[in-house]
Amino acid sequence: MGRLLALSLLGIALALLGERFLALRNRLKASREVESVDLPNCHLIKGIEAGSEDIDILPNGLAFFSVGLKCPGLHSFAPDKPGGILMMDLKEENPRALELRISRGFNLASFNPHGISTFIDSDNTVYLFVVNHPEFKNTVEIFKFEEEENSLLHLKTIKLELLPSVNDIIAVGPAHFYATNDHYFSDPFLKYLETYLNLHWTNVVYYSPNEVKVVAEGFDSANGINISPDKKYIYVADILAHEIHVLEKHPNMNLTQLKVLKLDTLVDNLSIDPSSGDILVGCHPNGQKLFVYDPNNPPSSEVLRIQNILSEKPTVTTVYANNGSVLQGSSVASVYDRKLLIGTLYHRALYCQL
Asked: List the disulfide bonds (predicted).
């Protein structure tokens, strides 16, 4: 009787593991291939060789790049080189990416930048918020951008229990932001287990100097985050659920879900086209290729444009797609004055004139 019970429990466990494995492959879109959608007038950006995971562009055309992200188990083309912040002036005829100097006292050797966001204060001071993973830990760094010196002055490091696996950030004040956690746990093994079991425990956190709170939860893996041009709505990408969530922002900074847009790809970072309010999405058509790197079968890239997301039937169009022969693992796309920048998780970056 005891052996029969043990065999029954083993059978149930194996069936559960098998079901979870098949579900994970579906969440990763492990069988999906992408057909190329090319853009004319594109070239790879010199000086970005090991990823540009996030990009944010100021209204004056200065673009900031978060480069050199490293995560446990993730491929890297420069595993021993610290990350950095690069800048490109999109108003120049032939813009170049230049690395910004960072003030003394900041630990450059362990700098491992992830999501970024800018905020312009009422006195025109520009703040750059950076998700950082020094030694694979989780912090948010706040810098002041000093344009004349092409440098960043480090102001503050924020480390919170409510940010155990912070991914992306949207600044809503000089020391205020929303941030996503892509996992509930910080331990690498527990992260893998959480993903495998599809626990939907990830969330969005609001931070101010006076208050820290969870404002939205129940995501499979909350990733990119941004804010609507009228500041009324927060957009959150749930990468493994292939969804973009639209959340209404309230005066107390709490969020309530308004709608969910389902897509057929892994959605990463979200950017807003300042001329139209459209959402540009850096996507991973096949997540398995992204996380299990094979140079002979590299991860592909995909950029979507979403128009009228608040409408009953938003319009979704493919702006760019590549099978990895040019660009591998697109994570973000940002546009300024008909100039498109596409960044990647750990590969190159693309500059296109539309």
From this structure: 42-352
The binding site comprises 53-54, 116, 167-168, 223, 268-269
Q: How far is Cα 184 from Cα 20, in angstroms, rounded to an integer?
A: 18
Q: 43, 75, 114, 200: which one is catalytic?
A: 114
Under a CB-based contact definition with an 8 Å cutoff, are residues 179 and 207 in contact? yes
Q: Would residue 50 count as lying in a domain?
A: yes
What are 280's two structure tokens?
A: 């540009």
CA 34 to chain centre: 21
Report which DSSP code applies to 278.
P
347 is catalytic: no
Confidence (pLDDT) at 21: 77
Phi, psi of 275 (to 5 degrees): -85, -20
What's the token pair of residue 341?
């920048």
> For strand 266-272 and strand 255-262, is the pairing parallel, antiparallel, or unpaired?
unpaired
Is 0.85 topped by the overall pTM?
yes
Q: Mean pLDDT over all residues of the chain?
A: 95
Which parts are annotated binding residues for Ca(2+)?
A: 53-54, 116, 167-168, 223, 268-269
How many folded domains does the chain comprise? 1
Is 7 within the bounds of a domain?
A: no
- Whether the CB-CB separation of 60 and 118 falls below 8 Å is answered with no
Q: What is the mean pLDDT of residues 321-337?
A: 98
Is 291 in contact with 74 (CB distance < 8 Å)?
Answer: yes
Q: Is residue 11 part of a domain?
A: no
Is there a domain that residue 26 lies in? no
Mean pLDDT for the stretch of residues 312-317: 97
Whole domain around residue 91: which residue ranges? 32-353
Surface-to-core class of residue 103, CB atoms within 10 Å of its CB (0-12 exposed, 13-18 middle, 19+ buried): middle
**CA 45 – CA 90 distance, rounded (Å):** 12
For residue 20, give the nearest of 168, 183, 172, 194 by alpha carbon. 194
Q: pLDDT of 168-187, one tens digit each? A: 999 999 999 999 999 999 99
